[in-house]
Amino acid sequence: MTLEPVRYRSSDEDSGRWAGFPFRDGDLVISTRSKHGTTWMQMVCALLVFRTPDLPAPLPELSPWLDWVGELRDDVVARLEGQDHRRFIKTHTPLDGLPLDPRATYVVVARHPLDAAISLYHQGDNLDRARIAELTGEPERATDRVPLIEWLDGWIAADPDPRAALDSLPGVLHHLTVAWARRGDPNVVLVHYDDLVTDLDGEMARLAFDVGLAPPTPELVAAARFDAMRDRADDLAPDAGGVLKDRHAFFRQGGSSRTGLPTDLVARYEARVPALAPPDLLTWLHRPT
After folding, report:
1. Is 7 within a domain?
2. Which of 96, 114, 115 is nearest to 106 (CA)?
3. Whole-model pTM?
4. What CATH number is associated with residue 252?
5. Of 19, 34, 4, nearest in space to 166 by CA
6. Helix (H, G, I), strand (E, B), or coil: what is residue 155?
7. Which residues participate in catalysis according to the annotation?
8. Integer angstrom CA distances of residue 60 from 106, 149, 281, 285
9. Residue 243 three-state SS
10. Which of 131, 135, 146, 273 is the most buried (most CB within 10 A)?
11. Full residue range of the structural domain in which residue 56 is found
12. How does pLDDT run across 77-102, given as a tens digit for each residue?
């Protein structure tokens, strides 16, 4: 029996927009949580598909975020329907909230949750929340900024429903646990963010093989490096509708940010996560930097 996808909704996204999506053979669906390497993987796919760093349009136009309620669904689908290249589509929805179509390949990027949380914290300063509210029709969300370590401590301790708070620690590990359970499926590919940092050439080649594309050239790998992407922030940053204050600031840091965190905070994190994800996933996720 095929289960109906879980409906994930927040103030700015709705996984129900995938219902009835007209898939094609070869579609790539990039499923990540926030700050897990979404834009990086979109760029990797763009380079492997187009075979040149000179993309035919800004990356957010080539690879739209279907779930985002700031743009009409019909407009996004029409843009995708008009593409004649192999499509690669962004989503922040876990695999259990998506229609799993055998014609598509689902690429899930994992990142150490503490690194992703630190990036998420800093991204909060770069969002134009008034503009987001204008586009989504939702009230502007107030933010009470606290120091990073205090914020991380609360993020580690919080225990919301993971399906209602996908950027929480339970939400992040729910997203990855769902993907981990399907890692043996022929059309699911898991990628670790740290592997993109340490072996971008090898990871691009592995992904190309897994999805049936030609391996990358040195020129394509160079264009996918973090510094090269930051230099092209105006074309690559996910800034549909002008929601970022500074596109270059979106590419804040490409590596690990968790080194130097207080040992007691890391200990609280390590004590919390075994209840949220299977041990083999955590072993794979928590590799040394």
Report:
1. no
2. 96
3. 0.89
4. 3.40.50.300
5. 34
6. helix
7. 92
8. 18, 32, 30, 28
9. coil
10. 273
11. 15-285
12. 999 999 999 999 999 999 999 999 99
